[in-house]
Design a protein that fits this description.
Chain A: It is found in: Chromosome, Centromere; Nucleus. By secondary structure, chain A is mainly α. Chain A has 36 helices and 4 strands. Chain A starts with a helix and ends in a 22-residue tail after the last helix. Classes of the chains: A mainly alpha, B alpha/beta.
Amino acid sequence: MAKAFNLLTSDLDVSSESDLSVSSRASNRSLRVAEKERRKSEAEDPFLLALKYFSEVKAGTPWMGNDVLERNLVLVERMGLTRGLPPEVISTMLDYAMSLRMGAPCVRVLKFLIPATVVPQEAIVRAVAWLCVGKIAISTQVLFLKWVLTFFDMIDSKDHLRSIYGFIFNFVTEEHLCPYICHLLYLLTRKDMLHQRSFIFSLSPQGRQPFLLHLLSLYKVFCPELVTTALPSKLRGGFKNHVTPWKGVLNAIQKRNTGQVTSDIRLTIGVKDGSNSRKRKCNHLQLPSLNSAVQRNLSSTNSRKVFPLEQLHSFPELLDNLHRIELPSQMGSLLGSSLALCYLDYVQDDSAFLRLNFWLGHALHEGKKASPYAQNCVLPVSTCQNCSPLCLFYAYVLSRAPQEGFFSTESFLYKFLNVWDGSLLRPQILGLLSHIPVVPSSCIHQLLFEPLMQLFFSSTLFFKCSVIECLNDMLLKWLTWHSVYSVEDGLDISLNSHTPMNMTLSGFMDSVMELVLFVGRLATVGLQLEGCSSLLLSFVLDFYETVCDMFLKFELPLVVMPPVGVFYPALFATDPVSVDRLCFIMCRYKQNLTAAKFQQQEHVFHISSQTYREFNRYQLLMVSTLWNSRLFQPGMAVEVDHNLLALSKVPEPSASFTLIRHPAFVGYALDFHLKCWPERKDMDLKSVKAGKHWEWYLEFLFSHGYLGLQQFVQSNINWHPGSGTKSQGQGDGQPTNG
Amino acid sequence: MSLLKPFSKLPELNTANILLVENEEQFQQILAETIVLLKKNVNVNVRLARSLPLPIENEKFRPRIDLVVFIINLTSELSYQSAEVSLKFLDPDYFLGKVCFLVTNARNASVPPERLISVRKLVASLHCPLLFAEDQMTDGVNTAAHRLLAILKVTSGHVPMATGLYLSSLTRCTVPSDIDQQNFD
């Protein structure tokens, strides 16, 4: 029986229609019937007939009670909603609908007009022509424009559409159409198109609406001379990402047709299947897929060749087609492809940045559910219980977003800091934070410091360390910008050509100063709260390693000394590494200050004498503490009353932090003592100080890798190893009181 | 009416007491369990209350409370009002660094933005810290517990050289001024 069945199915090649549970006789009959029907349908396909009907139906045919129309409509509708319509059908149906040959069904037709592959641009051109006739109801016109915007990426090529740019532009005056027309123009505009024509804008009061401003800002990028109105540098709102009924159907159809979605978030960030149902709930969280439907062979026949980004698969391909790449309508899709990001980095196209900025702003701020005015609604909470897709989505967007000069990510960040709990998306947020461009010193407190401070002091040690590290990265980034972009003569910097951010040198220095002082405060109190934790101290010293070299490495005439709250914990630290790094930092400070002093006469900058004094005080203290055993003595930075010291019953308190008795180094001293006099029973560390042993002891220390200490001793202390005696190391390291 | 006073009782050795006040009694339970399970070097007692004043009967056995935490769920107006009413039953001394506010659901889109602003204003007027918590996620609850514990250690005197007043002067909430906000947008 089974054998017969197999035979049958293989004969007819319609395995999908067979059912194993039915008896062979029944299946036999039903298969035959199906076969017959199939042949019959091929002869006169009702679908083709329906199309024929729509393309030939006369204008003025009544539609009320028209059964033929109804039957045909249902046929095409079912096809459209299940499998999508081929290009020629789209063309026919769009023409039928927009010509209003039968009046009312226009809206219904538009609703099921889902393309299976591409939308022929001629169909749209024709439809726009019908739009110009002006018989169509406004709501239908809006629906049509939404339809075009939804399927913009599937339009096979856009050159003909661009050639009727002027016609489309005329619709801007229509109040209801304006937002959609602006969006369409925004997507269509190219630089060369604007040079040929000039548009005269008279901005009525309602003209300052975000969508118009967005379009204008694009024009301004292309031809600044055309747009004379002042535009706000940071635009909010703009084009809504219309949630149209078509998108869901389109996704379903594409999934069915290709067996997989082209490149949605599930594929790109490696969340594997199974999250399918959950993903549908958070449909708005997908990165748009790169699916502009331009066929390569098709476009090559056109006068202007375009190369869709999603067909790029390798870097050489990118190089070959660099000049004719077409940007997608959903700029967010660029984030999904590293090649696309390369392209974006390379072209430095202002309009592309503008559009990506807009997309990011939309994704980060407005989301789907948040009301646009709600200031606190950053990172909208999804209604679904499990938030992981949402987190992944934002993590993904945040980690991929090109971070320089994107106001949308910045403003998102500033708002988010105000409601951040300190753990949600921590790596991404801190990463983003370290990449923000220089914040003017007037608002740096409000935007950054206040929320950060509130988070910093109420969080764990780990968080404190990561904040300091992030601020160090931020400073490094700022300084690098400065050294790269600073203009030769005025020392002024203009950051990123695609942002309106210009800064004077003094403004920049103020911001850097604020940042350094802020970290100084954070570090001081943080170290105190965490009991001078070595881990935190190490991050703080990282930061000051950047700070001490600002003049020599980054040519910024600014030297800021660490506060005492950082200096003393590092100097009296129990781990030798911290002391060693402090020595290194002080050496760098000395070199920077000396260099600055030399150049100060030639240049205009001035480093305050207060800084020199501070440096000298630290230097003197370090030499007298580590070397000369003169701690607590009059004239030193730390003065303690003798009687008080006597009460502590510590023998020789002034020598308690020398290189021998310093808690960080006493272990080495003991080790050294053992090695020198292995047979001695009583430990006498003083003997290390005497004669040749002192010299050996220092060599011993340096040999353990304390190069900072070595550098410090060699550059600051008049010590001649050959002489065999320890001279009174006179902190000669004073670049003098400038 | 009895005021809860911070200094009316003697502290116990190596012990810190935290009081979580939440009208809805949802988050406080989870948070309390998390805090108790955290690794720490002091004994931490967590006490829960729906609102203040606390019942007089237990007055005798109640230890000294080192930190009072008001948990406000932003999606509910009642939660905010209840916290506001409870505040009156705290001795003014508590506001010298021994009170903090924990807000949940701050990112929820259905919350009217004015509510967060009014919470900010209230907390800023009391010079207290304002923390945010993600109560739906395990990580969020853990972080909130860690942060509360860090503050509790300071307010109960287990961190040398730091007091609650000192800490709260650093972390106290501020209301972003509207002008700057608009400029920025």
